[in-house]
Amino acid sequence: WADTARALLAHVGGARRPADRLTAFAAVVRHLLADPVLPAELLPPDWPGAALRDAYARYQREQSGQVRAHGART
């Protein structure tokens, strides 16, 4: 799980076009559904779950801001 999460983080970091970012973050969501969400004391120190969730949360905020900005213009 961790290796795939790191690969997804690298992929979303390099995705620039909106369609590529959407596709990448769809894969992130699918992967997060399989996160075992263990307590912190059971996770290895370099577990990428939090970083992947944070990346997705930033993407959600970015998209929400764009929707609000578009609504304000219309």
Written account of the structure:
- It comes from Streptomyces coelicoflavus.
- This is PaaX domain-containing protein, C-domain protein.
- One of its GO terms (biological process) is DNA-templated transcription.
- The structure is a single chain.
- Helix 1 packs antiparallel against helix 2.
- It contains three helices and no strands.
- The protein is 72% helix and 0% strand.
- The chain has one domain.
- The chain is mostly helical and 74 residues long.
Chart the SSEs and their pairings.
Layout: H1 2-14, H2 18-32, H3 49-73
Helix pairs in contact: 1-2, 1-3, 2-3
Domain Transcriptional repressor PaaX-like C-terminal: 29-69
Pfam families: PaaX_C
Protein name: PaaX domain-containing protein, C-domain protein
TL;DR of this structure?
With 74 residues, the chain is mostly helical.
Query: Which outline best applies?
Result: elongated
Give the helix tally: 3
Low-confidence stretches: none
Q: Into which percentage range does the β-strand content fall?
A: under 5%
Mean pLDDT: 92
Helix content: over 70%
Reported for the largest beta sheet, the result is: none
Work out the count of structural domains: 1
Please provide the ordered H/E string of secondary-structure elements. Answer: HHH
Radius of gyration from CA coordinates: 14 Å
Please give the number of β-strands: 0
What class, by secondary structure content?
mainly alpha
The CA-CA distance between the termini, in Å, is 43 Å
